[in-house]
UniProtKB/TrEMBL annotation:
Keywords: Hydrolase. It holds the Pfam family PagL. The lineage of its organism: Bacteria, Pseudomonadati, Bacteroidota, Cytophagia, Cytophagales. This is Acyloxyacyl hydrolase. One of its GO terms (molecular function) is hydrolase activity. The keyword Hydrolase applies. It comes from Algoriphagus marincola. InterPro entries: Lipid-A_deacylase-rel.
Amino acid sequence: MKSLLPFLFFGILWTSAFGQSARKALDFSAQTGWIIPHNEELIPISQSNPIGLSFRYQVLKSKRENWEACNCFHYLGLGLQVQDFQNPEELGQAWTFYGSFQPILWRKNKLELALDMGIGASYLTQVYDPVENPRNTFFSAPLSFLLYVRPVIAYSLSSQFDLTASFNYNHISNGGQRQPNRGMNYPLFALGGTYFLKKESLPDYAKPEIPKEFQFYLDLGINSRSNGQGGRSPNFTIGAGVYRKLASVWGLGAGLDLNKDFSLAVEESRLESLMPAPFIANHFLFGRFDFQQRFAWYALKPDTYQADRNFYQRYTLSYQLGRNFRLGVGMKAHGHVAENMDLRVGWRF
């Protein structure tokens, strides 16, 4: 199921991309950066500097109903990129097919500031092997997943070409499919350009007033985890939360996660693997999109589960279908180490 999550995300994005577009563009960039060693054991293998190339096709629709999806104009894109970690024997390359959502945050004269976010399926040419590649505990599954976020500034050189500069923060992991699964975090600086096949001027729409009331929601995360017996068992997380919008694209909230992991061994009762965790949450709200970052504390958990961890983060990206129903994806992490990804459904009251 986890292998389908990036493609589900692509489908959510591209359902609104069909029809007449105000802008169509080819985007490309060259990248260079470094690897963050989030564990002392990873320092020796993290000394190389990754480089990469990215190519993408983007569309932007200017009708009001499209603008209302995030209360902003936004590009939707599909792209292909290759990143070389400059360590061919141990880290190899990552070839990624990805989808992107890029809302425009600010425009003035020839300048444009946007926030590009995306998710993709990555093929990794080098993964962990206990004999032949024991130091690479970043990657253990050839099919893994890329999540990234990058602020982008564009300067218009002509009616058909923009020069772009960006700072990318990337994370690749296998979503808990196979261990070890430390995942890799690697920032990249990028220079590139956007060639417009079509570029119309954008209208001005009045933004709605910021609501003063609190928003309540429920969501359910579903995935499966290795049970240590050669199979996989279901893992469910129910979340209940509330938030309030404090600015046009930003809100704060709190809530409670209730996690039931059937892959964990118990002695007497399944209640032993029930893990309640209160959380505080930051929300980036772009119309129908909600990019949420939860910081949670384990109020109760089995002694053998994440024995040295009392806190975790959960990142979710959801899209509201209709008035109340939400569909999206999530990722749970302990510090820099991703544990799993899940499919999420929810309801906003």
